[in-house]
């Protein structure tokens, strides 16, 4: 496995980095745009006030939404003590340290300050993590909702379309996704909302395309998960 790089990587909207892994841990931060990582366990997504933690040895691929200025920091050590991917909150100070280290990767003082700040960071957040379903019935339902987040069919209706029962689907959601179906659908809608916002769509358009009845309902749901409005999604 190669060493995890430290540096900058501009990506166009829809740009991808194919599946790979590396010996070191890594932080991927979208200075502009939105970035996601996908592993065998699911997908994590981060706008400009979040970063993605990628543990050493994790096979993952990147995808950019909107023109993205990706900043990468590789670590031989694990300052967060995390062995699974995670979404990290990025404060203004942490943002500046990540940007500076990505532009001056050989500066030992900058790296030391960044490592110290990461060790002092609060617990990581998981605001938009889409776990990967294994059961084909659940995977079929997840694919239907993922293809059209505004699909408002109930769990029994989706279960019938997948050839199973709503009770079975509810059980599979808890067992494989670690959440209820309504919680998963909200996560999926927020995931798509971040992508559409990165592509420059207006909040009202995003709200309706992702299944909310109004812009205000979308803003409330977004604020509940991220702690701020959609308008601040790309600022630290």
TrEMBL record:
Keyword match Transmembrane helix: no
Domain HTH araC/xylS-type: 139-236
Keywords: DNA-binding, Repressor, Transcription, Transcription regulation
Signal peptide location: none
Gene3D superfamilies: Homeodomain-like, Jelly Rolls
Pfam families named in the record: AraC_binding (PF02311), HTH_18 (PF12833)
Designated name of the protein: HTH-type transcriptional regulator RipA
Species of origin: Nonomuraea endophytica
Lineage: Bacteria, Bacillati, Actinomycetota, Actinomycetes, Streptosporangiales
């Amino acid at each position: 496995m190669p060493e995890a790089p430290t540096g900058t990587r501009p990506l166009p909207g829809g740009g991808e980095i194919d599946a790979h892994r590396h010996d070191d841990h890594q932080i991927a931060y979208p200075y502009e745009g939105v970035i996601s990582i996908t592993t065998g366990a699911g997908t994590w997504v981060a706008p400009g006030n979040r970063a993605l933690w990628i543990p050493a040895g994790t096979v993952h691929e990147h995808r950019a939404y909107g023109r993205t200025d990706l900043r990468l920091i590789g670590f031989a050590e694990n300052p967060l003590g995390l062995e699974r991917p995670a979404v990290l909150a990025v404060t203004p100070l942490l943002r500046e340290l990540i940007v500076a280290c990505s532009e001056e990767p050989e500066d030992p003082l900058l790296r030391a300050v960044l490592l110290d700040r990461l060790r002092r960071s609060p617990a990581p957040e998981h605001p938009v993590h889409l776990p990967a379903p294994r059961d084909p019935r659940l995977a079929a339902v997840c694919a239907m909702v993922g293809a059209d987040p505004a699909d408002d069919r109930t769990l029994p209706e989706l279960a019938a379309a997948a050839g199973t029962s709503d009770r079975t689907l509810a059980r599979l959601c808890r067992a494989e996704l670690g959440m209820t179906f309504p919680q998963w659908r909200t996560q999926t809608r927020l995931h798509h909302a971040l992508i559409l916002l990165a592509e420059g769509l207006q909040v009202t358009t995003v709200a309706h395309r992702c299944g909310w009845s109004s812009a205000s309902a979308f803003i409330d749901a977004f604020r509940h998960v991220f702690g701020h409005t959609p308008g601040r999604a790309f600022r630290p």
